[in-house]
Specification:
- This protein has 1 helix and 6 strands; from the N terminus they run E-E-E-E-H-E-E.
- The chain is mostly beta strands and 89 residues long.
- The chain has one domain.
- Strand 3 and strand 4 form a beta hairpin.
- The longest helix is centred in the middle third of the chain and has 4 residues.
- The protein is globular.
């Protein structure tokens, strides 16, 4: 069970594994403008999805190191989503 607490609000979510690396995902409170609440996100810097994502974003600057972390939205039936992140190189 993943427990996330923010501003006195406790959110309990089931443990879910990233389908790309098998690590348990962590809870993250998304910014309000995204429309998400607390989502589950893979924070594994060695995850194949994360490491391979830098080349998947089109129309970005050549010197940009943006990529995507795998995440799931519990409020939408754990539907997969991509969250932009800075990738190591």
């Amino acid at each position: 069970m993943v427990i996330h607490e923010y501003a006195g609000i406790v959110t309990e979510l089931p443990d879910r594994e990233c389908p790309h690396c098998g690590k348990i995902m962590g809870a993250w409170l998304a910014p309000p403008e995204t429309g998400w609440n607390v989502i589950l996100i893979c924070n594994n810097n060695n995850c194949a999805h994360y490491l391979g994502s830098e080349d998947d974003i089109i129309h970005k600057r050549e010197d940009s190191h943006l990529g995507c972390r795998y995440a799931e939205d519990p409020d939408n039936g754990f539907k997969p989503v991509n969250v932009l992140a800075v990738c190591p190189h």
